[in-house]
Please model this.
Amino acid sequence: MRVSRDLRIRAWGAVLLALAMVLAVPAACPSAEGVSDYRAIFKPFHNDRGTLSAAIRQYVRGGQSRFLVLDPERFECAEADAAAIQSGRPASPEAWQETPFARALARQTAPPYPLQNDGLRKAEHPVRGYFLTADLCPSKKPLDRRVVEQTAGLPLKPPVPIALMVSGLWIQRHEEDLAWLKDQAALGRLRITWVNHSATHAYDPAAPLERNFLLKPGTDFTAEVLSLERLLIERGLLPAPFFRFPGLVSDRRLIETLRGLNLIPIGSDAWLAKGESPQPGSIILVHGNGNEPEGIRLLMAFFDRQRSAFALGDTALLPLREAFRQD
Ligand SMILES: [Zn+2]
Model:
């Protein structure tokens, strides 16, 4: 009798503990909730303050319908709930086409569709500074934290801007590095622009470029784009409306699909490990995934050469948005 009562109490204790854990998990870390039904949409609208923006993605998180809303002046996305979208006044596609983002998207996805390095390669207008982009392609090596440490340590006003071009397979093998990067941003050291670099980043060293990277036959390009965004959102990060093609390889079909997804392709005119040297306005390309140490060495040398100009305010590292014309 006594034994069975103890067992019953213990069994109830276990049930209550399990229930408490189930209830506690979503409340403790809301950003880690799964995201489902992730899809691309396009709904331009005016919000309560009359500002024009567009919902470009819809998904379900925590049982709620959510939206990614693109700010066409700041070139940034924010998360919104259904009420914010429903209370908005619909805007015409024509009004949207006049926004700085839509104009930049049209310019950077126009013909002639080169096989390599399509999209923004340098600033569209004169700027006093450089745009630093670091690719995180799939890699078994840890994040090259020197890139981040040295960038954050430059004599520039924090947070120092850097664009990280991140792939899904890199995220899945580097959760600790990703958490560390989030910490650096939260500490106010870095202003990280999270740029989509595809989910799987297919690469075959033996295949010709026309059939390599995202042009590999059988690749579902839209799924490559959207599933990477979902991975970021599940980790509490918001994707920027930019995309870097793996290998900088694309064709007309991919560029037109990207335009339909409201993402601007980002190329480079200063891939350091390929011997290209940065000029003012350059989009600098290095790899932060440990696979291209020569590029990092050249970046450190570039930083050393620019250090006094940075300190004097003569030049700077700039966020990608500033590479685009304002009109
Ligand atoms: Zn890559």
